[in-house]
Amino acid sequence: MPKRHVAPELYLNRELGQLAFNRRVLALAEDRNAPLLERLRFLCIVDSNLDEFFEIRVAGLKEEIAAEAPAGPDGVPLSEVFRQVTAKVQELVARQYQVLNDEVFPQLAAEGIRFLRRSNWNAAQKEWVKDYFFRELMPVLTPLGLDPVHPFPKLLNKSLNFVVELEGKDAFGRKSSMAIVQAPRVLPRVITVPRRIAGCPHGFVFLSSILHAHVAELFPGMTVLGCYQFQLTRNSDLYIDEEELRELKSLRQALQGELTQRQYGDSVRLEVADLCSPRMTDALLQQFGLTRDDLYQVNGPVNLMRLLQVYEKVDRPDLKFPLLEPALPKELSKQLNIFDAIRKSDILLHQPYESFAPVVNFLKEAANDPHVVAIKQTVYRTGAQSEMMDLLIHAARNGKAVTVVVELMARFDEEANINWAQRLEEVGAHVVYGVVGHKTHAKMALVVRREGNRLARYVHLATGNYHSSTARFYTDFGLFTCNDEVGSDVSEVFMQLTGLGKALKLKHLLQSPFTLHQRTIKAIQNEARNARDGKKARIIAKMNALLEPEIIAALYDASQAGVKIDLVVRGVCALRPRVAGVSENIRVRSVLGRFLEHSRVFYFHNGGAEDVYLSSADWMDRNFFRRIEVCFPVLNKKLKKRVIREGLMPFLERNIDAWEMSADGQYRHLKTARRRPPHPQTELLKALAVKPPANLR
């Protein structure tokens, strides 16, 4: 069947959609009802998101423009996309710093959390700063004068640097008007000032302020005309050449070679202090091969992410969201052996409202249970420190047959995953890296246990990563089951990943790149057919991103057939809803909040059968065709209703931090009644507030 295309005017641009998402995150920082330190944290999140946006999306866009690539599905020339992107980012960054300087900083100061500015230092503070400079900074700083024998240094991606404008001659009679001072990454960017010196409970000074105050000490006998902080963003996408890979015969070896160069990719963006002189700004742009379109002048720190240290250092619970105490499903509240509990019934976990501890405990019991013979697990993101990975190592040492599919190409987690792979191999675990050309993004764990005269399979499937830290901030579903057919499906997927052979037909799981795309389109078409036959038809889908053109075309057809469609898309959505004659029956919402909405939940009415699927995959090209993903049904009727009740309906019925897309592709912040109803996440926190036993917290 030929691929269906979407008319360009009905397909929204991905890059602009991603910036619109970041504008919605910024709205969380603008919300005066949010706790003050959380507003600061949201500003940091926007900054981090923009960093990755430039490192990956803008870097790729610039490469496509240079290669004279054709326009994307939206039909907009790439040069015009870049122009719109830079204009939108400039607006976003200006508003970001306006909120920081005009609202967050003054309100923090009123709460006794102050950033001490050079212009306001008293005598005691000046003396403390001077002592700190000579004691902690001077020994590790290396000023770099620029002249014919001192070329411009190669700067690390997103490192903090200072360009110094000079006048005069040095001890050797050399005359240079420009020098660079790099701030080593071992130095803190925000320094805590003792209370007696700060004059407030929580006083901080920026590293940049200390350096600005004493930079002349680095250039004795010369006149410092100006000192300006700047940060260079580089292309951070990794590329593995398949020819090179065939020669090396090791993805890990190829990746290790590429990782060393990631910090020195092509220049993409220059951020400088807004007081930087035009001469210095132009010199930096010329040095990095950038233009004024790539320049972002900011009124404050050039990397707001450093302010996250303040959120972590300041112990003010009243200025943060209430402490989260995750619940435990009642099936596990009696501290049963987890395999006994799963045999009684499938168990659903809804993080972060419910504890991630049962997932860790699943591996812990498997590692120590003498009846367990094998453990298999996929790893995409797990962190540099991970109890789960330690347990897999422990299981291998205990003689279990441990197989781990480690995705080495998980962006920005490559180094951690390489380290875990090496440690696992050292204890005899089988480590494989999936399939070349397809990232293994599926979240699966399989435990094989001998019970009497049979081998039983226990499975955990999830929408999110095996990462204890993000499980406290990301909303995700996980399912424990010992259903024989589901266990057989999971086993088959692991066989594909570790061995060779044709993909066999699965009984329940939908899998990318084989069946997920086709079966999703069929499910959408089935609803359209039912609507045309006068039957009830309904689609609800919750995901992080919707970009795949054929899926969008099928949704447009279903809308025209009369299917009521609700899409809850946290991030980028290329579908245009509410267009007369095309998508009148489609509503697109984005809901943000304290937790990052990460779960993928898909509902199809299916003539009353009400099919509910959970998945690791968004509706994007990469998830359908270039990744190994699984989408699994919720077969237990009680749990199915729970997923609908907790994972879908609250996001259709509440307007707190909800945005709705109009036919023009713009998002409208939905208004709430004067008495604010609770946020869906707040409702779930209250509904699931059952503390786990102490040993499982």
Topology:
Layout: H1 14-30, H2 36-66, H3 78-110, E1 113-115, H4 123-137, E2 143-145, E3 160-167, E4 178-182, E5 190-193, H5 195-198, E6 202-206, H6 207-214, E7 223-234, H7 242-248, H8 251-262, E8 267-273, H9 278-288, E9 295-298, H10 308-313, H11 338-344, E10 347-351, H12 357-368, E11 372-379, H13 387-397, E12 401-406, H14 414-426, E13 430-432, E14 439-440, E15 444-451, E16 454-462, E17 474-481, H15 484-498, E18 510-512, H16 516-532, E19 538-543, H17 549-561, E20 564-569, E21 586-591, E22 596-597, E23 600-604, E24 611-615, H18 621-625, E25 627-633, H19 637-648, H20 650-653, E26 658-661, E27 667-669, H21 680-687
Parallel strand pairs: 1-6, 8-9, 11-12, 12-13, 14-25, 17-22, 19-20, 20-21
Antiparallel strand pairs: 2-4, 3-4, 3-7, 5-6, 7-8, 10-17, 11-15, 15-16, 16-17, 18-25, 19-23, 21-26, 23-24, 24-25, 26-27
Report on the structure:
By secondary structure, this protein is an alpha/beta fold. It folds into three domains: 8-319, Polyphosphate kinase middle domain (polyphosphate kinase like), CATH 3.30.1840; 338-505, Endonuclease, Chain A (2-Layer Sandwich), CATH 3.30.870; 511-696, Endonuclease Chain A (Endonuclease, Chain A, 2-Layer Sandwich). The chain contains 21 helices and 27 strands. Strands 14, 18, 19, 20, 21, 23, 24, 25, 26 and 27 form a ten-stranded mixed beta sheet that branches. Helix 2 (36-66) runs antiparallel to helix 3 and helix 12 packs parallel to helix 13.
